Amino acid sequence: MKKAIFSTVLLGAFSLFGGTADAAIVSGTICRGMFPTDQVRYLANEAINIGSNTATLFCPMVNTINVGSSIEFKFLVLDTSVTNNIECQGDTHDSTGATIAISGPVTTSGFSSTPMAITGTTPVQGLSTYDYMASCKVPPLASCVSPGCSVKRIDLF
């Protein structure tokens, strides 16, 4: 009985985040600054740019299943800047390291006090043998309302 209840709760959680089971979900805390000058602070489930310049965050994604006939990256970000937007894209690489698909770039469209989802899709077969990487350009702390602009979560499906 307990197992059935847990399964129902877990299925309900998937429904809250888009209605389908994702191939991979990563927290923003997996993201790292791409350049030595990027200054990133990590809170419970997000990466926040605390630097004085735009930071490029690199977020590797582990995927063990075939994605399907298209590759979709959904970025859950918090854009509290009135002057800058967050820009994200997803890259797919084959087993030789060659880039075979780029989803995006996609950008936010202004200030939001709550997290928003932006999505990039590419009509390419996503295989479990491919490498997936997301990246986001996050505005500097000075242009964002406290605690700052951040990447909270990335879904691949």
Which tags fit this structure?
157 residues; mainly beta; Jelly Rolls; five-stranded antiparallel β-sheet; 10% helix; 43% strand; elongated; disordered N terminus
Helix content: under 10%
List the total number of helices.
Answer: 1
Overall geometry comes to elongated
What is the tally of beta strands?
11
Notes on the protein architecture:
The chain is mainly beta and 157 residues long. The chain has one domain: Jelly Rolls. Helices cover 10% and strands 43% of the residues. A hairpin with a 2-residue loop joins strand 3 (40-43) and strand 4 (46-49). The two termini are 30 Å apart. Mean pLDDT is 80; it is low at 1-20.
Q: What is the gist of this entry?
A:
It contains 1 helix and 11 strands; from the N terminus they run αβββββββββββ. The protein has 157 residues and is mainly β.
Describe the SSE topology.
Blueprint: H1 2-16, E1 24-27, E2 32-33, E3 40-43, E4 46-49, E5 55-61, E6 71-78, E7 87-93, E8 99-107, E9 116-122, E10 131-138, E11 150-156
Antiparallel strand pairs: 1-11, 2-5, 3-4, 4-11, 5-10, 6-9, 6-11, 7-8, 7-10
